Amino acid sequence: MTARNQGFDIRTLSGALLLSFAFGSIHAFGVLLAPLQISLQSNRANVSLVYSLAIASLTAGVYTSRYLGSRGSPKMLTFASGLVGSCGLLLAAYGPGLYSCLLGYGLVFGFCNGVAYSITLEQAAASAPAQSGLTVGLATAAYGAGAAAYSYVLGPIATQDGSESALVLLAAHLVAASLLAGCLLQPAVEGLAPQTKLDAKVPTSVKPTARLWLIYFLGVSGGLMAIAHGPAIASQAGASVQEASWASILMALGSIAGSVFGGSWMQRVGARTALMMPILLSLFVHAGLLLASKPDLVLTLLLLGGIAYGALIAAIPVIVRKLYGDVAFNAVFGRIFSAWGMAGLLAPAVAGSMYDATGHYTFALWGSIALAGLALALTVGNLSQDGSKLPTVF
């Protein structure tokens, strides 16, 4: 009897995790921020816009994958994402100036990342339908692991040899990982039939989706800001270059732990608690960063921030799948995931602008606290009886 027949397809799950790991590298951007600023001879706000645009494009990729999936198998989309995404990275490495970086890293690599991320979640859930909370949590954890590993590898390369060398190495890794991951995906679990995907009906009640959208947007804004500016926040507290490079690594490691915990824990405690706890932790972290003056304490807080961020991003897709089912998942999650993209577009860029204007991150952290507080209010507040109430259990 095969693993697939037993309800657990290890080969497909392995392919999904490898794909997630490779594309998680997009969140190693924090270690590229300062080297890119030097290479492009630009300011913090402009370089931060590269990551913001990548997040927005990633969101478009997740949304568009619903339609791309009707025209190509996950295998082919995986191959294409790796090849086209690597071309974007090479354009960012060798193209002239900031606009090439915006186009290559921000638009092309970001869009391919979104397509790959959608495939990852779908395939991870399909590999073990009865344990989708766990497998989706593992997939988001692998995404965080990629961010940690590539931060560790690319940081020293970008600092010593320049951002071009780091981007070329990442492009080579992306091609190899995508080819191998695509080969591991099994045709037997490639998801719903194409026509079924296109015809999947989105629930007519928009209020649950709107509430989740707002919670997602407000809840992840601070985490995405910290991912983009974590090393700079640590440097502001007196961390050395080497210590500051650990900010991205620790946030990614925290995201791994939070993702594994958030996906599986959500199935035990229900949606409301699974959303409330990471938002509370995020609020605590950003309040602590306002007061912390020692590098070790800042790095510890960023690790906790990574845990909060990972738990939240793992819980959301599981909640959507439970509320709306497998057939409508891609359509509904594509809507809700746009909140993550909007947060990624605004939070890093606004934080960079605030830093350029003031020379510190105080106002950016206050903004993160305010947004987390609003997210918490939406999560725990009394909801109307029109179907928009988040379930306490499933």
Order of SSEs: HHHHHHHHHHHHH
| Tally of separate helices | 13
Principal-axis shape equals: globular
Overall pLDDT: 81
What percentage of amino acids are in beta strands?
under 5%
Assembly state: single chain
What is the count of distinct domains? 1
> Can you name the CATH architecture?
Up-down Bundle
Describe what this molecule looks like in 3D.
The chain is mostly helical and 394 residues long. The protein has one domain (10-380): Up-down Bundle (Growth Hormone, Chain: A), CATH 1.20.1250.20. The protein contains 13 helices and no strands. It has helices at 10-23, 29-40, 44-68, 74-94, 97-127, 132-161, 163-184, 194-199, 207-236, 241-269, 271-291, 295-358, 362-380. Helix 4 (74-94) packs antiparallel against helix 5 (97-127) and helix 6 (132-161) runs antiparallel to helix 7 (163-184). The chain is globular and about 50 Å long. Mean pLDDT is 81; it is low at 1-5, 188-200 and 382-389.
